[in-house]
Design brief:
By secondary structure, the protein is of the alpha+beta class. Among the domains are: 3-311, Distorted Sandwich (Beta-galactosidase, Chain A, domain 5), CATH 2.70.98.60; 641-720, Golgi alpha-mannosidase II (Immunoglobulin-like, Sandwich). Helix content is 20%, strand content 31%. It is built from 13 helices and 38 strands. Strands 6, 7, 8, 9, 11, 12, 14, 15, 19 and 20 form a ten-stranded antiparallel beta sheet that branches. Strands 21-22-23-26-27-28-29-30 form an eight-stranded parallel barrel, surrounded by five helices. Helix 10 (545-555) links the parallel strand 28 (536-538) and strand 29. It binds alpha-D-galactopyranose (GLA). Alpha-D-galactopyranose binds at residues 329, 359-360, 369, 404, 471, 473, 519, 521-522, 538, 541.
Length: 721
């Protein structure tokens, strides 16, 4: 049983395949967390209770004990998991145990994305109910163990069982103490065009926040943190990690207390979210996925990948191989017409591409990025036959057709804005800050949600559209609503996300066979919340393969390759100006959902042949690339080489990808050491026919024939024989 309760010592033991998470009901201190780490057998654990501080001291209970749900006014002085301002004007909250239940399966979270199960046997859930006697605030702390996936999910449901309104100021989905302070924090930091750079920093004696206040999870920080030991590497050592299944502002913390113990937490960001909880009302926090790995960072990522690919992503496309696509954005930007589109599609068909995606610029009068968002009506100057006409012509060429939308936005120069100037997020009497000359629709409003659902759906109904790119190109400034009372204005960011999720749920379920891909100025909202609705995301607007090594490497800390859009674009690259070979560009794009983002008609015959060959390779191995196990081997953040491998088809197919940044004069021979192969099995290199033992590939390594140019790449395909 993955969750047990021992009546005599009041310990809940949550066990995954390789981890244990031990909670205890303490008569004075409430709910404690005694242990999270490698799996323990059932047995005595309460001996740890008094080992979180030294001599009796100035400090009070909640700071000396490993509190699971810290609140204010209890002697705990870090970020609380739960905090509510009450009618008396204070935020004291003392949670005492009421009851608990252990049930098979996992509950869906109303209105929010979450890990799901397909059978109750996949999961066991513990709900512990606690209450503040004075205010009546009830907290249902929900824990689900997904034993086979070796992960734990957590969320809180907060209910006002009192007679007065409460203002929720802190709602951390997960908060957990860890013994000791010798951890390093890993977070994924970035900006537009350089998303999810891996940053690893020793924890100091100060609290660390990883957060977004942008109204989107954002380019700057991803809703994920990991704490690791100093000796944790990609392949070995411990990692404790949390990822939030949410697409808006968030806060993750790593805090070291005065007894040199650490707490990590993740949840909504209290800086931009305060919630009014009326008597009888409930608030559901987003869900956090918690993973512990004793097998290094790859062990952590394997667990995240499995759960996100199979039990966060949903629908028709979840287990299907994804089409090779071509997108016209970097080929034409706004300057296209039907003929140009069909020429690109025709050339793409010639090399085996399966889907053509028409990007921004097809609607309203959108010749630049200064107008028409919200007016989802085709521009017949560019496409005289409408979307239906161009889609059918693309279909006749033998390609499926996909379309770009940016449904959450409104241009001040649009018919929609002229009709509904109050439909954007704004504050009366203040200017409306434009970014990329656009404002954000107020999706906290039901009528605005309905408009977006109908506007997108009517285009999807009107033409044979197989794919949608759902973009979102700015962050929030005046994140307030014209439709809300003053006391609830600080709810707007979260209400927006709830509205967005309603819109996404309605549209994706009305068009179940359409492949949806998320996008936000590249990868600005690449999170597990979005992947619940759309199984893939545009990883970055930066298509430079050298930059992409780091972006894709960092993204893979949490998100599997099947979620990452990766395209071959023109050289010199439009973002960096760097020139690279077509082979390097294709070999890097092979690390995600492969596609093109250029006009193939502008390539040389030799380059076209390289593209044709790349498409052939992708089609031959995409089952392994998209559904196999992905493992990082060499980090582009640490050296001149990067390498990763995919193992699929029950270990029979293996793809190894290696990359070089700069050429060195008279170099030594570099070897790559693979991992996770069967030591006694033999693997044949598809190109050379040479056969290697798994043990040799892992322990002796595979020499890479030196490449005498900058930005080189090697792809090996092995078959187990
Ligand atoms: C964003 C996307 C790009 C492209 C443009 C269109 O920047 O990330 O891929 O769709 O918008 O305006």
């Amino acid at each position: 049983m993955p969750i047990s309760f021992n009546e005599s010592d009041k310990v809940f033991h949550l066990q995954g395949k390789t981890f244990s998470y031990c909670l205890m009901l303490h008569p004075e201190q409430g709910l404690l967390n005694l242990y999270w780490g490698s799996r323990l057998p059932d047995g005595e654990i309460t001996y740890l209770i008094n080992s979180f501080w030294g001599l009796a001291s100035f400090d009070l209970g909640a700071n000396r004990f490993p509190t699971e749900l810290p609140t204010r006014g209890t002697g705990y002085y870090g970020t609380p998991a739960v905090c509510a301002l009450n009618a008396q004007g204070n935020d004291l909250t003392k949670l005492t145990y009421v009851s608990h239940a252990i049930v098979p399966g996992k509950r869906r979270l109303e209105g929010l994305p979450a890990v799901y199960t397909e059978a109750d046997s996949e999961a066991t859930t513990l709900v512990i109910t606690l209450k503040d006697a004075l205010t009546g605030l009830t907290v249902e702390a929900e824990y689900t163990v997904l034993e086979d996936l070796d992960a734990l999910t957590r969320s809180l449901r907060l209910t006002n069982g009192g007679a007065e309104r409460l203002t929720l100021t802190h709602m951390q989905s997960a908060s957990a103490p860890l013994y000791g302070d010798d951890y390093e924090l890993i977070n994924l930091n970035g900006a537009w065009a350089r998303e999810r750079q891996v940053v690893r920093t020793p924890l100091g004696r100060a609290n660390t926040r990883v957060e977004s206040q942008r109204g989107a999870s954002g380019h700057e920080q991803n809703p994920f943190i990991a704490l690791v030991k100093k000796d944790t590497t990609e392949q070995a050592g411990s990692a404790w990690a949390m990822a939030l299944v949410y697409s808006g502002s968030f806060l993750a913390t790593a805090e070291v207390n005065n007894f040199y113990n650490t707490r990590m937490s993740i949840g909504l960001n209290p800086e931009v979210c305060r919630w009014q909880l009326d008597p009888g009302a409930s608030f559901q926090t987003p869900e956090a996925i918690l993973v512990y790995s004793a097998e290094g960072l790859n062990g952590m990522s394997h667990r995240f990948h499995r759960i996100i690919r199979t039990r966060v992503a949903r629908g028709y496309w979840r287990d299907k191989v994804r089409p090779v696509l071509i997108n016209n954005w970097e080929a034409t930007y706004f300057g296209f017409n039907e003929e140009l589109i069909l020429n690109i599609a025709r050339a793409a068909k010639e090399i085996g591409v399966e889907l053509f995606v028409l990007d921004d610029g097809w609607f309203g009068k959108r010749d630049r990025d200064n107008c028409s968002l919200g007016d989802w009506v085709v521009d017949r100057r560019k496409l005289p036959g409408g979307i239906e006409g161009v889609a059918r012509k693309v279909n006749e060429l033998g390609l499926r057709f996909g379309l770009w939308f940016e449904p959450e936005m409104i241009s001040p120069d649009s018919d929609l804005y002229r009709a509904h100037p109050d439909w954007c997020l704004h504050v009366d009497g203040r200017s409306r800050t434009e970014a990329r000359q656009q404002l954000i629709l107020d999706l906290s409003r039901k009528e605005v949600q309905d408009y977006v659902i109908e506007a997108v759906s009517s285009v999807l109904r009107s033409a044979p559209i197989s794919y949608v790119k759902w973009d979102m190109n700015r962050n929030m400034t005046e994140y307030f609503s014209g439709d809300q009372t003053p006391d609830r204005q600080m709810e707007t960011q979260h209400r927006y996300i709830l509205g967005l999720y309603r819109v996404l749920e309605e549209i994706t379920s009305a068009f179940p066979e359409v492949l949806f891909e998320g996008c936000s100025g590249g990868g600005g909202r690449f999170d597990a919340g979005f992947l619940y609705y759309m199984p893939q995301f545009w990883t970055s607007d930066d298509t430079d393969p050298v930059e992409r090594l780091g972006i894709q490497y960092g993204t893979s800390f949490v998100y599997p390759p099947a979620t990452m859009g990766a395209h071959v674009s023109a050289s010199p690259n439009h973002q960096t100006g760097r020139a690279t070979s077509i082979k390097m560009r294709a070999d890097v794009a092979l690390g995600g959902n492969f596609g093109f983002e250029l006009d193939l008609n502008k390539l040389t015959q030799e380059e076209i042949e390289a593209c044709r060959k790349a498409v052939e390779t992708v089609k031959a191995v995409r089952g392994t690339l998209q559904q196999g196990e992905f493992t990082r081997l060499e980090s582009p953040f640490e050296g001149n080489f990067a390498a990763w491998q995919f193992v699929g088809n029950e270990g029979r197919d293996v793809v190894l990808c290696a990359y070089q940044r700069l050429v060195a004069p008279n170099p030594g021979c570099h070897r790559v050491f693979m991992t996770g192969l069967c030591p006694d099995a033999r693997y044949r290199d598809a190109e050379s026919g040479q056969v290697f033992s798994g043990a040799a590939l892992m322990h002796a390594g595979l020499p890479l024939r030196p490449i005498r140019s900058d930005f080189g790449s090697w792809i090996f395909r092995f078959e187990r024989v």
